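Predicting holo structure, adenosine-5'-diphosphate bound.
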Amino acid sequence: MIAVPIGILTAVYLVEYGQGKRLARAISFFVDLMMGVPSIVAGLFIYAFWLLALGFQFSGFAGALALVILMLPVVVRNSEEMLKLVPSELREASYALGVPKWRTITKVVLPTAFSGIVTGIVLGIARAMGETAPLLLLVGTNPKINFDPFSLSLTDPNPNPMTTLPTYIFEQLTTAAGSTTAPAFYRAWAAALVLTDHHHHVVERAGAVRRPVHQGPRLATRRTRIAMAKSIDVSDLNVYYGKFLAVEGVSMTVEPRSVTAFIGPSGCGKSTFLRTLNRMHEVIPGARVEGKVLLDGEDIYHSSVDPVNVRRTIGMVFQRPNPFPTMSIYDNVVAGLKLQGRQPKKKLDEIVEKALKGANLWNEVSDRLSKPGAGLSGGQQQRLCIARAIAVEPQVLLMDEPCSALDPISTLAIEDLISELKERYTIVIVTHNMQQAARVSDRTAFFNLAAVGKPGKLIEMADTQKIFTNPSQKGTEDYITGRFG
Ligand SMILES: Nc1ncnc2c1ncn2[C@@H]1O[C@H](COP(=O)(O)OP(=O)(O)O)[C@@H](O)[C@H]1O
Ligand SMILES: [Mg+2]
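Done. C-alpha cells:
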C-alpha cells in the first residue's frame, strides 16, 4: 500500500518532469538496478539493512517495508511505461485549454493510463506476495536458531545450521550490512528528493494558477471577458528547437474577426509558428522563442504573464481530432472549464449546449451526451474538439490543419463552421489545401524555406484574393500554381 503512491509519483516525476534531468536519470538507474536484482537478495538486503544497520526491532513493519521496496521498482517501471503511452496530443489538448500541468496529469494523463497502472500494481503485489513465503520463514524464526527448512531444526537432534545456504546468506548479509549502507542511503535520499521535488512543482504550479487573477490587465480575468476577437501583432519572431532555428524573423499582423490562413510546403514551420501564438511551443523541452507577440498590444511573452492564461485566451484545435478518451461527449466539452475550476451543473449544461450548437454538432449528439467522445466519427470528433475549444470562450482560435484527417463532407462542415465563428473570433488556420485557404480565409500568409535544415520564413502576406491572383513574390506564385511543394 505504501509502494503504490510512491511508485506512481515517482513514475509521474520521471515522465512528466524528469526529461533529461540528472536526478531522473539516477532514479531510473536505481529502478533498473532493483528490477534486475533477484528479489530474494533485494528483500534480504533491505531487511538486514533496516534491522541491523538502523537498529529497528524485528517487526512485521520491517517485513512490510522489505516488500514495499520489492514492489516499488515494478510499480514505477510499469507506471512509467503506461504514462509514456498516453499520447502527447492529449496533454497538448489539455494545455491548449488553459489547464495547468499538474491538473492535466491528475485529470487527463493518470485516468487515461489508469488500467495499465493497475496492472502494474497487481504485478507488484504478485512479486511481493511471492516473497512473503521466505519472509514468513524469517519473521517466524528465532534468529538464534537455524533457518534451514531442510534440516527440520525442531526435531533433528543434530542440526548443522552453518552449512546450509539460507543461513549462509544471512551470515553474509549480517557481516556485509555495515559496508553496504552507502547505496541504501543513496536510495533513501533519492526517494526523499523525488518527493520534495514533486511537492515543489505542485506548489509552484498551484501558485501560478492563483497568481494571475491579480495580474496583467486583460489577459488575466475570465469574468471580465466577453467573447471578443483580438488582433495579434508579431514582430521579429525567431523560433528555436534547442539550437535549431526553425522559423526566422517573422513579423505580421493578424486582424480581429477574420480568418488568416498559413500556407507553405511541409516543414517550413507553419505549425511551429502557430504554436508560438499561444505559447504551446514552449511545452516541448528545449523549445524557445525570441521576439514579440502582442495580443491587442499586450506582450504574451512578458515575464508577468502566465502561459496558462494565454492558452485560455487563445484556443487551439489540432490536426488530428483528440477528444479525451476517458470522457463522455459532455465532459469533453466542459473539460476546459472543469479542469480550470468548479462550475455549477446548470451553468455547465448551458455551456455544453451553446458550444455544441456553435460547433454545429448539437443536432447529431444531443441525445447521447453521456456516451464516450471517442465513439464519434472523425468529423464529429473534430467538431467536438472545436466545441471544447470554444467552451472556454477564447478570443482567438488557432487551427492546425483541422481538416487534414477528415473526409470532404466533414471538411465542408468545418469550413462552414469557420465562416460562422469568424463573426466572433479571430481565427488562424494552417492548411495544406489551397482551395481551402482560398475558400475560408480573408488573408493568407505564405511561408517557405530555402532548403531542408534552413529556417522557414514568411515570404508574403496579403489579402487572400491578391495572394491567389496576383502575388508579389515569385516563390508564392510558384507554390500556388503547383510548380513545387
Ligand atoms: N518537436 C520538434 N523538435 C525539433 N524539431 C521540430 C519539432 N517539430 C518540428 N520540428 C522541425 O521544425 C521545422 C518546422 O516544422 P513544422 O512547424 O512542423 O512544419 P510545417 O507545419 O510547416 O509542416 C521542421 O524542420 C521540423 O523538422
Ligand atoms: Mg504542420
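The chain has a mean pLDDT of 79.
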